[in-house]
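User: Fold this; tokens only.

Assistant: Input:
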Amino acid sequence: MRAEKGMSGYDPEIVDEFLDRARRAFEGGGDDLVSRDIRSKVFPLVSKDGYSTKSVDEALWRLEEAFADKERLAQTEIHGEEIYFNTVRERAQEILDRVARPAKQKFRHSGMLQPGYHAGDVDVMCGQISRYFQQDESLSVAAVRRQSFRTQLGGYDEKQVDFLLDETISVMLAVR
């Protein structure tokens, strides 16, 4: 689906090339593409005749979930379900250990004159993640994917926060 007239969209040639690569990889074409690669894929924008960013992002999310399902099946066949889920539990515990840190101390801070994610906003999300893993609150993969934070000088290091969100999504998909 093309972006609306006057709106930027993803470069169709690059999107099509990536989706072809993903299809071949999913069908066993020897490519080492994994769900994490799909989750972190970024496409360049074009000012006209691009693909709708929302449509492509939603397609990538479905593709990521299909790859995650395939990866889970492969890992449980190789190592068995008990070992697989023990590994996933260990990753979930690492996330819980991070989000359980005191408020405004969960992540490294950017420099005092450097923008970072608003610590209060991130701490709220960390509370939701903590309650999700402790089975007290529902949280969807889409909600984690769509999470955005205000910025502030001296805020949380964006790379660390993004990594935690990425790991959270990975674990959530691993246990679906």
